[in-house]
Amino acid sequence: MNKKIIKADKLVGEVSPPPSKSILHRYIIGSSLAKGISKIENISYSDDIIATIEAMEKLGAKIEKKDNYLLIDGSKTFDKENYAIEMASKKEGLISEAENKVLDTTQNQLAVKNATDDEGTGRETENLLGKRRKKENENTSSNEKSGKKSLWSKIVNRKKSDKNENWKLVWNDEFDSNSLDTSKWSYWGDNNIPWNAGNYLDENGNLVDQSGFKVKHYYLKDNVKVQDGNLIIEVKKENNKTVNIDGKQRKILYSSGAVHTKGKFSVQEGKIEMRAAMPKGVGTWPAFWMWPEWYSQGTNKLADGEIDIFEIYGSDLSRVTGTAHVLKTTENRYEMFDKNDEKIKKNEDLTQFNTYAVEWDSKEIKWLFNGRVYKKRTMKEMEKKAGRNPYNQPYFIMINVALENQTGSDGDVDFPTEMKVDYVRVYKKDK
């Protein structure tokens, strides 16, 4: 058989790939957030693409729809008042595919302007907001249990955080990635900074109290994870789990987790805020707190101050505790400025998401729960009683879940249990 080889000439022309919905969603959202005019060609108008277009229009983007292309002007995105109320009310169930991409792209921006009832919004806005809040409350339980954040909850919580326009966001972690951001946080216990990793059993089975207050936990890196937009700290009961203590394997009873910002971020004065859901069970002891930047176990000195933004005790989930500790100048002990705990309202549940914060300036520290101030301590008051004011220096941030000595084998905790953190944000006064 004779073979004839035909050499083809070079192909010349244009090839248009078929439209991709997944890519088009991203192009529409990205173009709507960009300053200037973008043109997107070769599109297909499916129902969910139309929903994304309409959602971005509600956010303020100007979009012209042509037969086979879009012209998108994003210069006015986020300038339209009350768009969040209208979008979330009318497009319920149509924006779920786009919402995370919008929020992830804009997490450091104010997502909503005038989402609450500012002067002039009108009765229609008020009614829409009321309906949307009712809907959100109905869906809270399922959303919170799954750990997923709805668009509306993110919008509302960001607006609540920023309702005082004098506060400027200077540092934050929304925990929207797949792992802990180690440029912002360190795991507790690394090189004994800021303190030891917890308590363990000696060779005779006795609890070694290196923490100074007979807790039963030991902090492990593996108990800290980032998942579904939350930082999660898990508390577990261990069986035959050992850790290396001074070259020897020692058994631990329970494991937990903790993170801190020492050496990576510190703040002197400002608003420090967290949104979080607490663990259940007698003996669980989650905390959000601060130490002076200079302080670590290796200094062999006591910290001259401490700010407990909150401590929650699993034995009493009806109250929130905020405390200032000042090391007395005349004695090697702390003066505790506690009391005035916040008694939560009937419709509040600490195992669901709530906001906790302090507002700290040169004159006083205020403690807040869900935006309401429940406690104040002035610098003059603390200096008069303790002999010093340690709050004229930077402090680093810590998050942990301890386990008090009172818990154990009596079944008072359904292990494993966990604390979920939606975000941590730090604001400074915008002067």
Describe the structure.
The protein has 431 residues and is of the alpha+beta class. The chain is 20% helix and 33% strand. The protein folds into 2 domains: 143 residues, no CATH class; 268 residues, Jelly Rolls. The chain contains 7 helices and 25 strands. Strands 4, 8, 9, 10, 13, 15, 21, 22, 23 and 25 form a 10-stranded mixed beta sheet that branches. The radius of gyration is 26 Å and the shape is globular.
The helix content, as a percent range, equals: 10-25%
**Which CATH architecture of the largest domain?**
Sandwich
Distance between the termini: 89 Å
Structural class by sheet pairing and helices = alpha+beta
Could you name the CATH topology of the largest domain?
A: Jelly Rolls
Q: In the residues, how many domains can be counted?
A: 2
**Uncertain runs with pLDDT below 50, 5 residues or more?**
80-129
Number of helices: 7
